[in-house]
Structure formats: C-alpha cells, structure tokens
C-alpha cells in the first residue's frame, strides 16, 4: 500500500560524513554558541527522514490499526507492521512474532518481570544482574524478589568497569531462574560479552534478558547469534521518537508467558465467562499503541541500516579515542570507566568541581552533557563517586564538538581556581 511504499522509497544509502545534515537541531545555537550535543546516551537526536515518517502518519493516514476496513486504517496498519519488520531485520529476530512494541526499554523489562518473572520465580529462587545495571534493570527485579522472597545476586566488576566473568560463572546455580545484563553500560560505555554470558547461562538452562538500550545505535545486534531469550531497546536511544521501544523474545518463551495487560486487540474473543487471547505479538499489545512512535522507530532502524554499522563503529571509535586523549590532558580530570571494549561514552570527575557545576558551565558554552548518577546509583557506590559528568557521542558527532567541550572544561578549571 501507499504507506509502505512511501517508507521504503525514502530509504537510501547515507554517507556518514554528511549524515549530520539530516539533523535539524544542529543548525541552532545555545546561549549564543554553536550547539555541541554530547548527551546522546540520554536521548539521541532525530534525523529529518524519521521526523517525516512520524508526521506523515499524523497528516496523511492517522487512524487506528488492526481494527478498521477503511483505507486510512489499512495504511496505518501496514506502516506499523512494516516498522515491526524493520526492527526485526535490525536485530535479526526470526519472526515479527518475536517483536513486541512497548513504551521503551523500561516497559519491556517490566513486561518480562510481570509475566515470565511472576509466573516462574518463587521463594528462594535467584536472579542475577550486574553492578553496572541501569535502575530499569534493577528496580523491577528488586520488586519481584521482595514479593516472591527470591534472591537478587550481583556480579562484581573491576575498577576499570569490566564484569568479573569468573565470579559470574561461579554464581550460576540450580536456583538461578534469570540473568539480566546490560549490553553496553550507559555510564561507563563498557561493552559486555553478552554472547558468552548467555552461553554460560544456557549451559544450565537459564534464560537471559539483555538491556540493549545503549547498543542498537552503535553496533550490530544479532539476537540469534547472541542466543538471548529477551532483548529490550528504546526508540529515543536510536534516533527515533520517545515513548516507544521493543521487547524481543524467543517465540517459545513468549508463547508460554501470560499477557501483561488486558484490553482491546490482545484478544480473539471475550465473554463474561472466558477470554481467548490473541496470537503473538498482539497478545502483549493491549489497547491503541503508539502508532506514530512505532513508525518513527522503524524508520530510524532503516536509517541506521542505510548508514551501516561498519561506518558507525569506525567513526565512533575514532571519536572515543580523540575524546579520551583530549580529556586525559586536562589537569585534575579522571576518567571513570576504562574498559578495553567501550562504546563512545566518556564519564569523568574533576578535582574540586562538582559535576552539576561543570554541567552548568558547559551549558553556558553551548555544550550539552549529562551530570549525576545516570540512574546507576549502585555503580556510583561501587566506584566511590557521588556523580560524574558524562559526554556521550553518536555517529553525527564532530571532533569540533569535543574541542568545544575541552575548551569549556578548561574555563571551568580557571573559574574554580
């Protein structure tokens, strides 16, 4: 139909050297300075083709999906299902049945907790996570353990932010019911060996959930190669809209799990005596979904594919190397997280200057960074810091923005002398 053909027609090969031109935000100034956006780990910016796909739905074929026989509803349904297919292709899921639209990574993890977790985990059972998890992959499991009287076990990490794999392997037991692990740390940039983590868990028939929010925009994710049972990610981390994400789950796992929410479109038939649930993936998608968000996320997946992960990885590793060298030369600055395998994230502290003060000074110089605990308070405790300043880069970042960051930090040093 028209919606699908329009989406596909807009997909083209994109040169990473010029992709920045697709992002309107970079034409603006902040406090009279050019914007240096170094907060992509919190929310990446959105390119014009994604915005166009998002707004085309609202301006051309805004209608509910899966319910109507009229043309607009059919076009909306086709566009949303095309987006599901784009996400399936991006992460190499076997089938669209394994791709469930959620409101984001947090919602996806909570879905697994409420469905698999509450039905499969009981008193004395164990859940394993790591020290570097985002709160989204801590709080749901803490809640479940408190409810079920289960045990939450935490994999230790080294001072440079690397998971202790020997400790992890020794923690796996006959009582372990789930391993939940972050693919890429949002605070440290550490890239975890998720394939090996999964292999070790599966050797004991333990399912694995991966928080992939920080992975999909930076590196190729192949859920079949990793062999994980669940994988969660968010649209706004991968150049798409906020309020949308996906949960990937192996079909055999999802088929056995009860629905998360009840309502419209997740049923085949309803009476006051009996409810028959819909097939995958719709069993988990109750109510009217975030249709435009899903379409935008699917377009973002196509945009990433059009650039190519090899180009993205090469450029971002150059940026990481450049930023690490520039920041390391600043007196009193210490980088937090120095794992040998990192994404394009640099967190740091500075002697005598609180991260929030750094963030304020940088903002006045047009530099957007993130300061605080980054929703990883247990990790901050482990590393012995209250907060850090985090500069996070993406494929559209330029070295000039890192220079702008460095100059602003030098100004902060002068101010606090």
Which CATH-level-2 architecture of the largest domain? 3-Layer(aba) Sandwich
CATH topology type of the largest domain:
Aspartate Aminotransferase, domain 2
The number of helical segments is 14
Counted beta strands: 17
Helix content: 40-55%
Q: How much is the radius of gyration in Å?
A: 22 Å
Which CATH top level class of the largest domain fits? Answer: Alpha Beta
Structural domain tally: 2
Descriptive notes:
The protein is built from 14 helices and 17 strands. The strands form five sheets. Strands 4-10-9-8-7-5-6 form a seven-stranded mixed beta sheet, sandwiched between helices. A four-stranded antiparallel beta sheet has the order 13-14-17-16, with helices on one face. Strands 1-2 form a two-stranded antiparallel ribbon. The chain is of the alpha/beta class. Strand 1 and strand 2 (33-34) form a beta hairpin. The chain folds into two domains: 19-38 and 309-416, Aspartate Aminotransferase, domain 1; 59-306, 3-Layer(aba) Sandwich (Aspartate Aminotransferase, domain 2). Helix content is 40%, strand content 16%. It starts with a helix and ends with a helix.
Entry keywords:
alpha/beta, Aspartate Aminotransferase, domain 1, Aspartate Aminotransferase, domain 2, 417 residues, single chain
């Amino acid at each position: 139909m028209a919606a699908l053909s329009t989406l596909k027609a807009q997909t083209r090969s994109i040169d990473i050297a010029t992709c920045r031109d697709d992002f309107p935000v970079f034409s603006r100034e902040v406090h009279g300075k050019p914007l240096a956006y170094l907060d992509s780990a919190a929310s990446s910016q959105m390119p014009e083709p994604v915005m166009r796909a998002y707004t085309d739905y609202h301006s051309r074929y805004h209608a509910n999906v899966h319910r109507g026989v009229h043309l607009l509803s059919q076009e909306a349904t086709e566009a949303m299902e095309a987006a599901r297919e784009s996400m399936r292709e991006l992460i190499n899921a076997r089938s669209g049945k394994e791709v469930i639209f959620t409101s984001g990574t947090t919602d996806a993890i909570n879905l697994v907790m409420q469905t698999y977790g509450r039905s499969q985990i009981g008193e004395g059972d164990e859940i394993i996570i790591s020290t570097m998890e985002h709160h989204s992959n801590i709080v749901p499991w803490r809640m479940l353990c408190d409810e079920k009287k289960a045990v939450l076990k935490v994999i230790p990490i080294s001072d440079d932010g690397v998971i202790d794999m020997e400790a992890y392997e020794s923690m796996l037991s006959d009582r372990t019911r789930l391993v939940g692990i972050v693919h890429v740390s949002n605070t440290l940039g550490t890239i975890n060996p998720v394939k090996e983590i999964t292999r070790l868990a599966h050797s004991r028939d333990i399912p694995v959930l991966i928080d992939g929010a920080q992975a999909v925009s930076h590196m190729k994710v192949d859920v079949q190669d990793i062999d994980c049972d669940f994988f969660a990610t968010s649209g706004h981390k991968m150049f798409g809209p906020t309020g949308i994400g996906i949960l990937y789950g192996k079909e055999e796992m999802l088929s056995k799990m009860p629905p998360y929410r009840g309502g419209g479109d997740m049923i085949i038939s309803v009476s006051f005596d009996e409810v028959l649930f819909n097939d995958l993936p719709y069993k988990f998608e109750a109510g009217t979904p975030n249709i435009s968000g899903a379409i935008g996320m699917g377009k973002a997946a196509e945009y990433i594919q059009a650039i190519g992960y090899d180009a993205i990885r090469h450029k971002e590793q150059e940026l990481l190397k450049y930023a690490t060298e520039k920041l390391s030369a600043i007196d009193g600055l210490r980088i937090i997280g120095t794992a040998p395998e990192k994404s394009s994230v640099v967190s740091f502290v500075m002697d005598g200057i609180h991260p929030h003060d750094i963030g304020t000074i940088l903002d006045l110089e047009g530099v957007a960074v993130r300061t605080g605990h980054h929703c990883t308070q247990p990790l901050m405790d482990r590393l012995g810091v209250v907060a850090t300043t985090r500069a996070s880069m993406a494929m559209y970042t330029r070295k000039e923005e890192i220079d702008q960051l460095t100059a602003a930090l030098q100004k902060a040093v002068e101010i606090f002398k």
